[in-house]
Write a structure and sequence with these properties.
Protein name: 2-hydroxy-6-oxonona-2,4-dienedioate hydrolase
GO cellular component, one term: membrane
Radius of gyration: 18 Å
GO molecular function: hydrolase activity
Order of helices and strands: HEEEHEHEHEHHHHHHHEHEHH
EC number: 3.7.1.14
Structural class: alpha/beta
Number of helices: 14
Largest sheet: 8 strands, mixed
CATH class: Alpha Beta
Strand content: 15-25%
Shape: globular
Strand order of the largest sheet: 1-2-4-3-5-6-7-8
Number of domains: 1
Distance between the termini: 59 Å
InterPro entries: AB_hydrolase_1 (IPR000073), AB_hydrolase_fold (IPR029058), AB_hydrolase_sf (IPR050266)
Helix content: 40-55%
CATH topology: Rossmann fold
CATH superfamily: Alpha/Beta hydrolase fold, catalytic domain
């Protein structure tokens, strides 16, 4: 008899880790935060329409050495959703307000997709607050109408129609292997997508998929060249929202940056290949301690 495949849950990923999920007032925005560990602060930022559970497979290993903060970004998850378009400076300001609320002067920023875009903008505008930067399939350097339409259409449809299959398809779009879009993650995201406040503000969240708005926020090579924080770029070769040349261009623009490509990996390298990513990240962080 074949044994059933056991898929780790968020609870089992965090087993043995002392953590808390709390709400932090970040500049007047109630912000959901998972906090674990002690030491230099590492802040994890998810992608468009995402939530802090994107880093469930990373918190345990990182919390052995660092004070981890995985947050629901402005307008996302269970964080507050003020009624204005969520452009990149808004995400930057929310991140800095979160750091201020927690007494964090400087942190390591790990940003996946939209989170990388916001993290990079913060590193440009407030370099003293960013000790190091990780860009995991980061967005924000190109304006590809086909990709933007895919993000806008699949997200809006999953939010406005109460059909879990649409949420499942949206999650599977992120992964090179559909099994990494676990049913638990689908359930978490489906619940978030159908909260009344999330539905009501979906246009604010998707504003960066509008060409005019995106071009106003895009990070150009001359912007990336201003990043002085040590930077690690991680990219999946099967990333559905950005091809490898985008990662190579970031690497070329950011002096001293490191670029690592993951084979058989989509848009969530930290989740799809967690063991490899965790080892890579911890080695990078160890090389670049916070300086005071």
């Amino acid at each position: 008899m074949t044994s059933p495949t056991i898929v780790p849950t968020i609870w089992t990923e965090l087993a043995g880790v002392d953590f808390r999920v709390t709400t932090v007032d970040a500049g007047g925005v109630p912000t959901r935060s998972l906090q674990a560990g002690a030491g230099e602060p590492v802040i994890f930022l998810h992608g468009t329409s995402g939530h802090l559970e994107a880093f469930a497979r990373n918190i345990g290993d990182h919390a052995r050495r660092y004070a981890c903060h995985a947050i629901d970004m402005l307008g996302h998850g269970y964080t507050g959703k003020p009624d204005f378009p969520y452009e990149i400076p808004r995400y930057r300001d929310h991140l800095l307000a979160y750091m201020d609320a927690n007494g964090i002067e400087s942190a390591h920023i790990v940003g996946e997709s939209l989170g990388g875009w916001a993290g990079a903008r913060t590193a440009i505008d407030a370099p003293e607050r960013v000790a190091s930067l990780q860009l995991l399939c980061a967005g924000g350097t190109v304006a590809n109408p086909r990709v933007m339409e895919r993000i806008r259409t699949t997200t809006r449809e999953a939010v406005t129609r109460d059909d879990v299959e649409l949420t499942r398809a949206r999650m599977r779009l992120l992964m090179a292997d559909a099994k990494d879009a676990t049913e638990e993650l689908v359930a978490v995201r489906h619940a978030i997508y159908h909260r009344p406040d999330f539905v009501a503000t979906i246009d604010n969240l998707l504003c960066l998929q509008n060409m005019e708005t995106r071009l106003r926020n895009v990070l150009r090579p001359e912007d990336l060249a201003r990043i002085t924080a040590p930077t690690l770029i991680v990219w999946g070769r099967d990333n559905p929202f950005g091809e490898v040349p985008e990662a190579a261009a970031m690497h070329e623009a950011i002096a001293g940056s490191e670029l690592v490509l993951f084979d058989e990996c989509g848009h969530w390298p930290q989740h799809e290949q967690a063991a490899r990513y965790n080892e890579l990240s911890l080695a990078f962080l160890a090389k670049h301690p916070v300086t005071r």
